[in-house]
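2 proteins. here.
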Amino acid sequence: MSKPQFIALMALLMAINAISIDIMLPGLQEIGASLGVVDENTRQYVITAYLIGMGCAQLFFGPLSDRFGRKLPLLGGIGIYALCALAIVFVPSFSGLLALRFMQGIGAAATRVITVSIVRDVYGGRMMAEVMSLVMMVFMIVPVIAPSIGQLIMIFAEWHMIFVVICVFALLVATMVALRLPETLSIEHRRPFTVTSILAGFRIVLTNRVSLCYSLAASFIFGSLFGFINSSQQILVGIYGLGHWFPLVFAGFAGMMAIASFTNSRLVKRYGMRRLSHGALIGFTIASMIWAVASIFGTLPFWLFILLYASAMFQFGLIGPNFNAMAMEPLGHVAGTASSVLGFTQTIGGASIGALIGQAFDGTVTPLAIGFLTVSVIGLIFVLVAEKGKLFSPHNPSI
């Protein structure tokens, strides 16, 4: 595959997770009404259940892909994902929906873990950060268009049709993987699928200070994104009354992160992952602090909310690809297991933190702003631990 084809396919695999969340945001209210859910915050569990399933299963798919290669487990996970999406069309209760969303997340875990592993198989150092940035840029197109697709579906059909679309999309991506993606893990680099081997791989990952601390920092930063996604419909529609304009504004935020990811891909080889991501984390913290202080004095004007949130999310686009690349860089020899442990930490941690932020919604943007500030400070602490208190210092010319 050419480099652009490779990046596009990796982005589509990552997009399976994005579309699973963003396309249904316009339909959360109807899903709740259809299945007898009155409390607005309870509807957020449609997202949380999926993220928890995806996070837990990553611990399984990583070692599995280290043993059997990347392609077969990846196709199996997408198959589980598609079957659960189709089953949700016929679900009779909210609890049943949550159970199937959890199972769907389990299948989707393969796309999260194995995609990162495939990129690490092929690239390392700043090249991996560049490729992951381009993957994230294309991946961010999904949040730009997915809510609008969901809104369009809701105009002409019921919420069940959203899951039919999700199923069809997954099957199309699976077909492309089956026909175009070569196996990237050679036979001689495969690890035995035994308890001893898996635990040894986990120990390698968990005892690497740099990898673990950057993964934990990313977990908290991703928690802010999940917190906004959980409460975005309540904020943009409930507080600011956007109505049918909600998908357009949501798309604008996603577009901001896509621009940041592209910017990172252009700059990372010149300035390095640490200089870019450390500066972005400090910028994220400053923007969150201004936002939190301003929100205490009352409801922010919509233009000010847009400005402060967009400022934070632009920094987010510079943080995510670099933190992931730095966490994976020392662990190329156990890429599948490493990706599973780091993915588990980021997904479960981020989903849990995001759920706490989302459930704190009280009719204002203050809990979200305080949540952003809190996770940015904690993330900065983990980075300082990883770097032994020294920021902006490249470890070698490749990273």
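next one coming up
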Amino acid sequence: MTQKFDVVVIGAGPGGYVAAIKAAQLGLKTACIEKYQDNQGKIALGGTCLNVGCIPSKALLDSSWKYHEAKEGFAIHGIEAKGVTIDVPAMVARKNTIIKNLTGGVAGLFKANGVTLLEGHGKLLAGKQVEVTALDGTTQIVEAANVILASGSKPVDIPPAPVDQDVIVDSTGALEFQSVPKKLGVIGAGVIGLELGSVWSRLGAEVTVIEALEKFLPAADEQIAKEAMKTLTKQGLKIRLGARVTGSEVKKKQVTVTFTDADGEQQMTFDKLIVAVGRRPVTTELLAADSGVTLDERGFIYVDDQCATSVPGVYAIGDVVRGAMLAHKASEEGVMVAERIAGHKAQMNYDLIPSVIYTHPEIAWVGKTEQQLKGEGVEVNVGTFPFAASGRAMAANDTGGLVKVIADAKSDRVLGVHVIGPSAAELVQQGAIGMEFGTSAEDLGMMVFSHPTLSEALHEAALAVNGGAIHIANRKKR
């Protein structure tokens, strides 16, 4: 007998599992299909983010930063730490324990909320029927009043550097190194490339990042990107911009990469090479030819602003649809869709999705950049505040970077908050909360911020928008 559900979700990543839990909380009979297996061959929930993405990379970033601080940053505090070493397998094992705890936590949440987990590969057929192919190859058909497609994304492969997960690895392989490579190459100076490059650089690798674009972090505010380039270069990352990889050759556990830049053809040899040139949507075997769901020219599922596809009752969320490939964006889309299926008029504000790069210092932003606004002809006032003038940052010996607040020159409404520095992600989230309620720079400037905190840097940057900063000299208005 065919199982029937109000909602069937294909994919248990941060979009899918959140959508399934929310739908169940709203009283809908819900099933979630997942096929991802961990290294023990068991189904693991949480998608790329929990298993081989956001969470494991942050675990390694934190471990590597603590090691770097112990080696390089303790002396200034009067702490003597001689002969500090790193046990890479232990660091990776800790990361794996965190993954296991979190993926197990999602399974527990499914049970607590009454979500039925169907193990296997989900494929949407005509008439909102879903075929589930179990790991042993057997199939079953389930029927759904509503279907949510949340199949996620995977790393992009490039022909000049084919991944073997030994010498040439993707972001997944880069989380599993058992020793520190002497020389490490990274193709791609995006979020993933910079984060993974930072991890292994802190542990002693000589890291070269090869980026095809001429511009560093083009999505970030130019002032912030410039500061980031300066800081990361100072930390030892060699960043080669305008460099296009044309080939690679693996010999005796090393890889020689050929690329062209302004100086012509170049070659560099590395012990390991990470390919981090972006991600693409996973739609392989997801849709039957007669499912009615349409893809755009780049392979993303076509949806409207509420994530509805071309088939009534079928939705798609997360990395498989337009917009930033961010876990928090996927999760909120999942909540919105579950709410809409339950009959609520939920909407999502795509203008205020924060972006974060978890290097040290962190780089984060929400809203528009100064160059975007100037390109749109919007007159703006800008306020900045450096962490070098923050008492809390000084106490923590973490004074690199700045906070930047951009406001409309006429209305004073805050249009963007951009930070490079300690706790950048948390400060930008404060900005996002204010912006969601239409805050002005003056509003932020009139609020009482506790002292001493890093948050005061946001307060001072907001005051600086209108020339009222207290703890730095204000720019004279022309």
